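Table S2 (continued). Query chain:
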Amino acid sequence: MTIALKLLIADDEAPARNRLRELLSEMSHINIVAEAKNGQEVLNLASNHQPDIVLLDIRMPGIDGIEAAQHLQKMAKPPAVIFTTAFDSYAMQAFDINAVDYLLKPIRFERLQTALHKARALLPSQLEALVLLSPQKTHFSITERGRILLIPVADVIYLRAELKYITVRTAEKEYILEESLNNLEQEFGNIFIRLHRNCLVAKAYILGYEKRYQEFDEEGNKSSEKHWVALLKNTSETIAVSRRQQHLIRTT
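Corresponding output:
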């Protein structure tokens, strides 16, 4: 007995979704479990339905297809991804070089059938290459109780490294992210500033700086010296500024 493939269609244009649905209706062993109009819906529906394959439009409002593919990789069992796109020679060249499957609109039956037969999850190296085609990520993806939560980058006050995890702090809540602080600094250096070796703070949330007495120095030794802290919007917390980074105070 052949098990039907669970498939999620993602495209912001209704005619494109209709076209895919019509083509897929002519194929056996295909079960369309959901349709999404944007990247946010892709993640929500993928968490709910656990599709085997996602037909993912590249250009969608908000979270585009490439960013959505990055977030999909956080799932316990990431689905295979087949991108769909209008003519874009730059994207097509990148896809060809990195062996990433894509369908060129208008999509043909035979080409779709071939893509479905060889569909597989993206390799990390493939996804890394595609990131260059996409604008900067707009959301962090947090895995929590088997689901993927999308946290807008604009809502994050700071990112603090603790052991092998990153604490993602918003005004309402803290989340845990498995990521390297150095990687985050490279990716979001235009948004966050490193005030301490273990903390990146969103520039937009810094109200100013103030000198305060500290009980312990950076090595954990007792101290009665004053040190600089950053005052933050939407929280009473402060972030210590390390000696190495105090030059930033004079330039802000």
